[in-house]
């Protein structure tokens, strides 16, 4: 795998989100300056993830990202869980390897810090440049790009990495299937400011017997993100926080899909281009970062095992997030009973939930 002996591989990364930035950082840190393109004219300010796993902080630490921003992140210490408005559990989150399993921090701010670290290595994200097509031989991938000024460009590289999100053009250009299902529900996400959020709690779930759940988390002090597996999350949040000031609300759909393998010849897909899932398990961003760092290192070291490792980890994470979502959104009284008993016990014996937080930690 890789370019000729002793030569640095030429790599083009499509997508300036978390997975693309992570791959570019992983390579730049080892002295290989990749080209990274982003079709938007500037960084997207749409907020998505709020939970950054311990494993991601650990991976980003070697690029100088974590230590700069971790003091502003909120360690996950307690999460509170209600069912049909009855308090089921207030769970003290157990430490994993001596640290909180995750910190709350806005994805947009994390990506800005990653991009700054990348520019310190001398790599700048090229905004307004879009991938349009790829042809490949055994030796090379030849890629057509559309530039912001309307011109086009053709580049030749050893590896093309599609980090271009759920609707990946790179994935469809090389015909990698995206296998799975779409959840039926329409989801909504909103962010508010409030002074009424309880102290020392970082996440709250308000589940209902009809299967609709409100998932609240605190990406930064005084700011709360709500996700509902239904429409109308902002009004559900206003009911709980009458002082709410709405920052935004939008709808989205959720799928559970992944590629059978992330590689087709000289082309790879990572992050949401390779797997998507419910946001409930808080794993998409963390898996995207893991993919980028892991593939970057493997491409430079010629490690062929990476193809199976990427596929295996995605399969495991999707199993977990689907299980997690089914448990939270169940309408079965029997499953609700056992779920609630379990979390109620875990609130007095946090070690019972250690396996759960170990997965969340990504360690
Ligand atoms: C509401 C919500 C909440 C979430 N909460 C969490 C959470 O708490 N924890 C967690 O871990 N995950 C969470 N996620 C998931 C997480 O946000 C995603 O998994 C993550 O953003 C994936 O990163 P990515 O870089 O792979 O893709 P993206 O962030 O989608 O980035 C892809 C980039 O590629 C660019 N692009 C696309 N096509 C082209 C092209 N042709 N040429 C050039 N550029 C292109 C796009 O403009 C985009 O910038 C959440 C998601 C949502 C929707």
Automatic annotation (TrEMBL):
Residues 11-199, 236-301 form the FAD-binding domain. Pfam families: FAD_binding_3. Keywords: FAD, Flavoprotein. Coiled coil: none annotated. Gene3D superfamilies: FAD/NAD(P)-binding domain (3.50.50.60). Its cofactor is FAD. InterPro entries: FAD-bd, FAD/NAD-bd_sf, RIFMO-like. The keyword Flavoprotein applies. The keyword rRNA-binding does not apply. This is FAD-dependent oxidoreductase. It comes from Azotobacter bryophylli. The lineage of its organism: Bacteria, Pseudomonadati, Pseudomonadota, Gammaproteobacteria, Pseudomonadales.
């Amino acid at each position: 795998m890789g370019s000729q002996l002793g030569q640095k591989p030429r790599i083009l990364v499509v997508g300036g989100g978390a997975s693309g930035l992570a791959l570019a950082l992983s390579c730049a840190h080892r002295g290989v300056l990749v080209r990274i393109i982003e079709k938007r004219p500037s960084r997207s300010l749409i907020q998505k993830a709020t939970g950054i796993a311990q494993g991601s902080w650990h991976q980003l630490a070697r690029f100088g990202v974590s230590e700069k921003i971790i003091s502003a992140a909120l360690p996950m210490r307690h999460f509170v869980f209600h069912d049909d408005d009855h308090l089921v559990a207030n769970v003290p989150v157990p430490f994993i390897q001596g640290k909180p399993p995750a910190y709350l921090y806005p994805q947009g701010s994390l990506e800005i810090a990653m991009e700054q670290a990348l520019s310190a290595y001398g790599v700048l994200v090229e905004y307004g440049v879009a991938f349009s097509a790829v042809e490949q031989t055994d030796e090379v991938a030849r890629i057509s790009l559309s530039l912001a000024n309307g011109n086009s460009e053709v580049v030749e590289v050893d590896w093309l990495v599609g980090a271009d999100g759920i609707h990946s053009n790179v994935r469809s250009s090389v015909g990698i299937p995206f296998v799975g299902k779409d959840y039926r529900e329409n989801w909504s996400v909103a962010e508010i400011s409030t002074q009424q959020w309880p102290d020392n709690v970082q996440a709250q779930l308000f589940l209902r017997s009809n299967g609709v759940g409100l998932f609240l988390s605190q990406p930064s002090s005084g700011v709360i993100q709500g996700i509902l597996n239904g429409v109308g999350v902002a009004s559900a949040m206003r009911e709980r926080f009458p002082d709410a000031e709405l920052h935004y609300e939008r709808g989205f759909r959720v799928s559970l899909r992944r590629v059978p393998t992330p590689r087709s010849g000289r082309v790879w897909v990572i992050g949401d281009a390779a797997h998507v899932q419910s946001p409930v398990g808080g794993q998409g961003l963390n898996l995207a970062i893991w993919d980028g760092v892991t593939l970057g290192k493997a491409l430079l070291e010629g490690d062929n095992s990476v193809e199976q490792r990427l596929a295996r980890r995605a399969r495991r994470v999707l199993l977990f997030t689907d299980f997690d979502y089914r448990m939270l959104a169940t309408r079965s009284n029997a499953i609700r009973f056992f779920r609630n008993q379990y979390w109620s016990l875990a609130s007095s014996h946090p070690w019972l939930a250690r396996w759960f937080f170990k997965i969340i930690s990504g360690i």
